[in-house]
Write a structure and sequence with these properties.
By secondary structure, the protein is mostly helical. The chain has 5 helices and no strands.
């Protein structure tokens, strides 16, 4: 349940703050969300990857359909990519990986400031 909350928080904050700032604000958002809400490393990476990846793919799909695939068709022809929708997928994957590593960094940075729980012999 916490994973879903992290994904939604990262996705919503990325959607609203990306219009006000540069593209890398989504990485800062992923870092601070995973720094604020503790999680494991894999959980943080998945939250960052899906939060920003799905947001970027959705937003690029919306922008692409608004101009009737004209821009992405021209870019796909320049890059010699067959389908223009591969560019939408590539935007989501690139944003997802960068944000996933940023979220992982936030989780690891949090672990620098927390004390590990002492291990008991009886548990």
């Amino acid at each position: 349940m916490k994973l879903i909350i992290r994904i939604i928080a990262i996705g919503v904050l990325t959607y609203f703050l990306s219009s006000l700032s540069a593209w890398w604000i989504s990485m800062v958002i992923s870092f601070f969300v995973c720094f604020t809400f503790p999680s494991s490393g894999l959980n943080a990476f998945i939250a960052g990857f899906l939060g920003v990846g799905l947001t970027w793919m959705g937003y690029s799909w919306i922008l692409d359909t608004q101009n009737e695939l004209v821009f992405s068709s021209k870019i796909a022809a320049i890059m010699q990519v067959g389908d223009p929708l591969i560019l939408v997928l590539a935007a989501g994957i690139i944003g997802g990986f960068v944000s996933g590593f940023s979220a992982l960094t936030g989780t690891c940075f949090r672990k620098l400031f927390t004390k590990p729980k002492p291990k008991s012999l009886y548990t």
